[in-house]
Amino acid sequence: MTTFARGSATLTRDALAVLQPGFAGTTAPDWLLRRLGEGLGSVGIFGRNVVSSEQLAALTAQLRAERDDVLVAIDEEGGDVTRMEVRTGSSFPGNLALGAVDDTALTEAVARELGRRLAECGVNLDWAPSADVNSNPDNPVIGVRAFGAAPGLVARHTAAYVRGLQGAGVAACTKHFPGHGDTAIDSHHALPRIDADLDTLAARELVPFRAAVAAGTKAVMSAHILLPALDPTLPATLSPAALHGLLRAPATEGGLGFEGLIVTDGMEMRAISAAYGIERGSALAIAAGADAICVGGGLSDEDTVLRLRDALVAAVRAGELPEERLADAAARVRALGDWARHAGGPGAAQGIAPAPEAGLRAARRALRITRGERPYEPPAGPVFVAAFTPVANIAVGDETPWGVAAELARLLPGTGTATYGRQDVEEAAEAAEAAEAAEGAPALIANVLGEAADRRIVAVVRDVHRHPWMAGALDTLLAARPDTVVVEMGVPQAPPTGALHIATHGAARVCGVAAAEVITGGVAGR
Q1: Is residue 428 pLDDT above 80, yes or no?
Q2: Going by C-beta distance under 8 Å and a sequence separation of 6 or more, which residues neighbour residue 378?
Q3: Other beta carbons within 10 Å of 192
Q4: Up-side HSE of residue 142: CA atoms within 13 Å toward CB?
Q5: Any idea what DSSP says for residue 311?
Q6: What pLDDT score was predicted for residue 506?
Q7: Do residues 31 and 40 make contact, with C-beta atoms less than 8 angstroms apart?
Q8: Which among 68, 215, 329, 358 could disulfide-bond with 162, CB atoms 3.0 to 4.6 Å apart, if both were Cys?
Q9: Confidence band of 1 (pLDDT split at 50, 70, 90)
Q10: How far apart are CA 526 and CA 517, in angstroms?
Q11: Percentage of residues in the chain with pLDDT exceeding 90?
């Protein structure tokens, strides 16, 4: 039997091992390399750390030179959530597009190519895929990040994605357990609550996670959500009932029997940090059954790492965190690092044939095209793109470009574009009181019509069903210009409108390319 109450050096090393911190800059800072030498087991890569594939490969080589079994993690879902291509938009459509096609072989191929590119850059752990069932169409944070709203569909594509990613030597981290799809609040801002009973949870939320575990997912990420039927007081990330009692428990006891690495969602998120603080929250998470603490999306300095390390050590010494639980968590991190050292990295990528067009082919197949009553005539010259833009959620970020304007400008030189948000509607109404428009849509559309002149208008929307100001602006525009093309780049919940309506099922760069091809009379998406 192993005897715990080990030395302080071992305890400190285990506390470092369970952290997955981020950092600032495009090269590894000295403090990060030093902490890797002291036992830090993982490093998180964010968009701020990536300039190019070549630069990322050099960065991860720095990390591996200090510790060859380091887990290099990234939040690379493809689609709307990309870190590798944060400055250009993703070369891969996201989950909703893949679910819309519903070809698991395609999903696996896309995930394998994404994994190949990650491995080529030295990344060996991807905080993906999202296995959430988007049962609430008004969900502000999941939406197109889910494969869909049907548990069976989400399950088969989650499993295919896990197989593809791990077939390229990149560990999948299936998220957000036990399911973030039925929320109406973004956990980056507050604690969401799901009032589903356990039978509903088993029949809906847990179905994709069972499929992921059966497919061999190496990691699972917990969600900062409250499910009173499971635990009336603690969010899943901090709940022994959720992590130990449901995710770890064997199937014979009603659990999922997962033996891999449990990673928390970002601990800076307000759902945890506002109520518990990141130090106490991290100790509670490890005690509940989590093995790795994700931090660094906002806090990315050495002081954060030291604070969390010391908080975990202090929790052990205070009897709040069993020493054997911390040791077990650290051992699971090292075990996955050992797997990644042998299965992943640039060497794994060399054994896979590149498929550079995989993402675009998938994006084309995902298009859903609805034509108006009159035959659609592609524009003969430049168009005007009016992008109605909601505030991006934090997971997506506002720095990644999206839409069809760039590709249409390439295909139709002289194309103009303008972006409009809710504030623009309000300001237009204030500036044109004579318009008698309570929400300002007529005043705003007058500006759009003036900018467009006699050019065809392409209206780009994102989750129009969730934003009354956007729906009002679009209705007003279509009343004035019924020949307008409408491109929905979010969840296509509202009925199709316009002379041509294109649902892309996501806002990745390749989704915009595929839509622009159809608008200009090119590839028809099939």
Answers
A1: no
A2: 519, 520, 521
A3: 22
A4: 29
A5: H
A6: 96
A7: no
A8: 215
A9: very low
A10: 12
A11: 79
* Rounded Cα–Cα distance for residues 47 and 297 (Å): 9
> Looking at 25-34, 81-90, 429-438, 474-483, which range is the least confident one?
429-438
Q: What is the pTM of this model?
A: 0.94
Burial class, 318, CB count within 10 angstroms (exposed 0-12 / middle 13-18 / buried 19+):
exposed
Map residue 520 onto helix, strand or coil.
coil
CA 26, 32, 36, 37 torsion-angle sign: positive
> What is the percentage of the chain residues whose pLDDT exceeds 70?
94
Q: Catalytic positions, please?
A: 188, 265
Give the pairing of strands 500-503 and 368-371: antiparallel
- Strands of 49-167, DSSP E: 71-74, 125-126
How far from 147 is each of 6, 98, 276, 384, 526, CA to CA, in Å? 46, 7, 32, 32, 20
Question: Phi/psi at 498 (nearest 5 deg)?
Answer: 95, 165
Q: What is the pLDDT of residue 38?
A: 96
For range 383-402, the mean pLDDT? 81
Q: Which amino acid is at 172?
A: A
Give DSSP secondary structure letters for 165-223. Answer: HHHTT-EEEEEEET--TT-SS-TTTS--B----HHHHHHTTHHHHHHHHHHT-SEEEE-
CA distance 15 to 136: 38
Q: For residue range 342-357, what is the model confidence (pLDDT) as tens digits?
A: 987 777 788 899 999 9
Residue 433 has pLDDT above 70, yes or no: no
Looking at residue 396, what is its pLDDT? 66
Cα–Cα distance measured from residue 476 to residue 497, given in angstroms and rounded to the nearest whole number: 12
List of E strands, 236-334: 261-263, 293-294
CB-CB contact of 241 with 231 (8 Å): yes
Tokens of 222: 């917990």
DSSP labels, 368-415: EEEE-SSPP---SS--EEEEE-PPPPTTT-SSS--SSHHHHHHHSTT-
Tokens 């030498």 locate to: 37
- Give the strand pairing for 416-420 and 384-388: parallel
Three-state DSSP state, 85 = coil
Q: Where are the beta strands (DSSP E) in 192-257?
A: 219-222
DSSP 356: T
| The token pair that represents 74 in the structure block | 């990234």
178 prior amide bond cis, ω within 30: yes
The residue whose two tokens read 């029997």 is: 257
Structure tokens at 7: 């030395």
Question: Mean pLDDT over residues 288-317, rounded?
Answer: 94
Interior angle at CA 131, CA 351 and CA 183, nearest 5: 150
SS3 at position 365: helix
Q: How far is CA 88 from CA 96, 401, 407, 510, in A?
A: 20, 6, 12, 10
